[in-house]
TetR family transcriptional regulator (Streptomyces aurantiacus), 430 residues
Amino acid sequence: MPAEAKPAAKAAQSPIRAAQPVTPPLTERQEARRRRILHASAQLASRGGFDAVQMREVAESSQVALGTLYRYFPSKVHLLVATMQDQLAHMHGTLRKKPPTGDTAAERVAQTLMRAFRALQREPHLADAMVRALTFADRSVSPEVDQVSRLTTVIILDAMGLDDPTPAQLSAVRVIEHTWHSALITWLSGRASIAQVKIDIETVCRLIDLTSTDD
Amino acid sequence: MPAEAKPAAKAAQSPIRAAQPVTPPLTERQEARRRRILHASAQLASRGGFDAVQMREVAESSQVALGTLYRYFPSKVHLLVATMQDQLAHMHGTLRKKPPTGDTAAERVAQTLMRAFRALQREPHLADAMVRALTFADRSVSPEVDQVSRLTTVIILDAMGLDDPTPAQLSAVRVIEHTWHSALITWLSGRASIAQVKIDIETVCRLIDLTSTDD
DNA sequence: ATCAACTCTGAAACTTGTTCTAGATTACCG
DNA sequence: CGGTAATCTAGAACAAGTTTCAGAGTTGAT
């Protein structure tokens, strides 16, 4: 039978939980390759953003043939979205350890997002690569992008301190995510200042207050 | 002296109103070329979205040499953002004729955006090309993207019926724009339904109500 | 240990965005 | 009208993402 299982098996078409299916377990060497690739990707991205992540260079840096790179990540966008998943998971862990301290849910969410924003500011090129990939992704990357979105939702709900959100609250969270992504883009492309992003985040977080009284 | 003036003169660095500088007036033939190019761009985009707009094809369709195309629009993203400016201006005209009828500012804005959304649904591929270009644009396209953003702001303020918005209101409008762009993207990439987009728009529009009482 | 099936490698080829060049054309000034 | 500087054209060339392929390397089953 197979030797090293196909690393990036296409997600089954289960309409629900399409992403992150029961990935055929990778061998150790495959796991190591995958990790080397993601590391090289993040490293190159940190240098020069989206454009600096060149597939040939990623392959070389991670000691993997170009064809192999494409077997693990079927496109540059897939690679960068996976890189984002990686970083986000890391950040989620960090945030868990120091939960925000605000009095209201809105404050805590704004605090959390600003903390994430400050982390991104430390690696603006990396942020550029990840966010550009995320918004440029077409349908073929939907499962992976969705996974990122789910992770973001969890982070926000955590900050709100909710286990069981109402539909209205979920809508508010979605709008917050929209604002978060789009505000990041305006910042990355130099059309909005850091202060502006802060204001936008704080503004949209007020929506949370609306959902406790309404509906 | 010069024959046909440089069509796509770099915007002066005037920090304010950077885009749309006093473009050296185009000759009639140049204006016609520019128009042919934009038309070809929109046409190809309507067929197959972002990927279908291939620079060689645009050049051929519009009867212009590739080098000329690049002189008018220095990149594919520039071209598509200009295409969006064109379409937006058109839509602004249309919207002006039939202003929204809702009772509250929030309702009117939501109505207006949903009207725009329905227009985009009629040409989903074109929408895809324009929106993807807009969010993928890097700093070199900032002036043009900013112009689009300004136009969008005007449309929203028109719907609100405001001449002289407060800073809080401008923040709300920015957040609405963020939500609008990002919601479009999730719809275009098949991660959100039309109904979902509608809900998100209605949700974010509630922010407008907040600005009349608060602050 | 051997085999079959699969994966990885290295290199070339292909695609499409972008740049460059030499020569033909056009616009405007005097 | 003629001159001249800029524009336009056709086509080659280059860059980076993606695909393809033959052969070498692994893996797990027998």
Observations:
- Chain B has nine helices and no strands.
- Residues 1-5, 27, 29, 51, 54-56, 66-67, 70, 74-76 of chain B lie near DNA strand C (CB under 10 Å from a C1').
